Amino acid sequence: MDSDALFSLGAPAVAPSAHAGSVGVDDFASVGEDAPLPVRMRPARIDELVGQEHLLAPGAPLRQLVGGGAALSVILWGPPGSGKTTIAHLVARATDRRFVAMSALTAGVKDVRAVIETARRQRRSGGPQTVLFIDEVHRFSKTQQDSLLAAVEDRTVTLLAATTENPYFSIISPLLSRCVLLTLQPLDDAAVRALLRRAVTDPRGLAGALTLATDAEDHLVRLAGGDVRKALTALEAAAASATALGVDRIDLATTEQAVDVAAVRYDRDGDAHYDVTSAFIKSMRGSDVDAALHWLARMLVAGEDARFIARRMVIFASEDVGLADPSALSVATAAAHAVEYVGLPEAQLNLAQAVIHLATAPKSNSATTALGAAMADVRAGRGGAVPRGLRDAHYSGARGLGHGTGYRYPHDDQRGVVTQQYAPDDLVGTDYYRPSGHGAERSVAARLPLLRRIVRGLSTPVSRPDGPVPVVNGRHPTGTGHAGGADEDGGDAGEVQQ
């Protein structure tokens, strides 16, 4: 069953012996001294819980459930180690209810019906309410979930179900509508750190026999990712290694060896954050896909916010790949959406796919430099009034002001482009965009001179980033696109396919 992430920071409470006074507790064995550390550190009452403060307010459904104040059927939805089984143990300690626990991994319809029938008989004879805890309830089939409906509806049983999957997709609507849905969140780093320190000193934990180095503690917190069970399991393994070595201090080296995960020197708020991010971007820009994947992996292992990584990739797609591969922006944006929609750890694959695409794509910063040059002119005060032909002519009186006069509609020309002034007077003939000639932008570089020549009504070759483009027999030396002169039909300079 799922373990817990809600632990006591206070003095350890003494659990009632064999759940004294309760009518029955099935499938939850008492905690022994040799039990795993996460199990030993479970709280005995709700006031000892740490985390999920949004569910712990007075009168909240969670308090009612644990205190036995209401027969509410509840579905607990949260990631592993967020406290679902801890809550189940607290409910099991209630003195006026019979508690039965089962796992959807092993139980079937027959088992569920047997519990319901027993609960119905006890209820008819004046016995106590039965609380049925089902772990991993999303693994129940529709038929198995259907078998619960009537008993939950008439409160023959109070259902307490736990799931790591989105219940709106994994649990049938009739059952979901009969329950209160409580969403549990991963614990933050501060809470995980506090609980690790408590486990080191608490009599139920290491009882002060060992100390935990700060860097080792940092590693355990980072490794946990909000899952306290994972943190405490790793702490227990590190403590066993330290004891075997005959030392009384758990240092970073011992912790790394015990959990077989190297500590990543990475501070999300410090220099390492910016240095690794910079290396990540520069590796993609330099088309070193292997280095880019390394820096991605380092950020992911260190617990960097995947949304931050995705945002940087979306920016990179236009800043450094641009029109050399127009699909790069779509790929990066899709990866960012996947991070939001799927989440980690699965979205790591989406990020990796996008990194490979961006790093291996042809590169062009033409969009970046073009926008920068245009903005520099605007800030310098260049750029006059909007040409009259381009002004809005849709409102009454606009034509009388000359708005729209002389405007030529490009679609009326068979080439789809016409000679017309679009720029302000003092920027006519200014070139901002200079295509790189890499990847897909190569065809743009071949087509752009002709477009500019027609739009500007020029009779001479226009300038290119590498100087004027010479004309050889009416075509560029590369043989791509028309450079000027009459086409084979005797018309103006060639067809323009945009």
TrEMBL record:
Signal peptide: none annotated. The keyword Nucleotide-binding applies. Gene3D superfamilies: 1.10.8.60, 1.20.272.10, DNA polymerase III clamp loader subunits, C-terminal domain, P-loop containing nucleotide triphosphate hydrolases. Coiled coil: none annotated. It comes from the Bacteria. InterPro entries: AAA+_ATPase, AAA_assoc_2, AAA_ATPase_RarA/MGS1/WRNIP1, ATPase_AAA_core, DNA_pol3_clamp-load_cplx_C, MgsA_C, P-loop_NTPase. Pfam families: AAA (PF00004), AAA_assoc_2 (PF16193), MgsA_C (PF12002). SMART domains: AAA (SM00382). Residues 70-187 form the AAA+ ATPase domain. Keywords: ATP-binding, Nucleotide-binding. Residues 459-498 are annotated as: Disordered. One of its GO terms (molecular function) is ATP binding. GO terms for biological process: DNA synthesis involved in DNA repair; DNA-templated DNA replication. This is Putative ATPase.
